[in-house]
Amino acid sequence: MTPELLDPEARRDLRGLPKDLADLVARHLVAVGELVDDEPEAALAHARYARHRASRVAIVREAAGLAAYHAGEWAEALSELRASRRMGGDGHLPVMADAERALGRPERALELSRSPEARDLSAEDAVELLIVVSGARRDLGEFDAAVVGLQVPELDASRDDPWLPRLFYAYGEALQAAGRPDDAVRAFLDAARLDVEGETDAEERAIMIGVGDPDAVETDDETGAEDAAAEDDIAEDDIAEDDIAEDEDATEDDLDDEDDVDEDEDATEDDLDDEVTDEDSPAETRG
């Protein structure tokens, strides 16, 4: 595993480090990318080591945040992505919002969706944020609002956007939670048809729901009235925005201090360094 395997843009972010250190950190970041999907805990260990050696580099904090997210370390993911954002890096707003939701704070997820950064997201990230917001609405018991929030122009089965299967899958979940099983089945079947890679269990979800009780099938007037009411709820939603900057300030000193590192990271530092430099190591053979 060589530093040259790191994305060129990411390597440019390491230019402020001494060359030997930049190469070392780059190798660990490569390991993060190789392992994050299948071995998230191992990826997180490499990310923590890279953070220990270069905690003031935005791309390092970004990688640490994403690795922590994939490993289910929600609070750590938020801390690292906030640090990346403060340093001018990508905060991955949909990931941050989903982590807030995972921590049982759906209101915070909604706040992030209304932040200025949300207006500048790419089309794909904007859809991901819509999905997270719909889930947060369900967490709050706002089931009809969760449905309406996904009824956007992008919810079009004739398109071929890569994120469409996830959008239709989320729509199916929202419809099911709102007590509309027949509509949910149709949404899941659309998701299954669009999911040519088989990344979701949309078809299985549709089968599990089944056609449903005919009495549960709502008329167009009924569903239209519900959707209109949900739109009014969203328009009138004046949930007070909590000040999340306070949490960020509370962790800022710990995050920005290169010397304040968990003892277990120090204990594994040499092993991780050997892993990315040893040609026979498992991480290298994946590279």
From TrEMBL:
Region (Disordered): 204-287
Compositionally biased intervals (Acidic residues): 215-287
SUPFAM superfamilies, A to Z: TPR-like
Protein name: Tetratricopeptide repeat protein
Top-rank lineage group of the source organism: Bacteria
InterPro entries from the UniProt entry: TPR-like_helical_dom_sf (IPR011990)
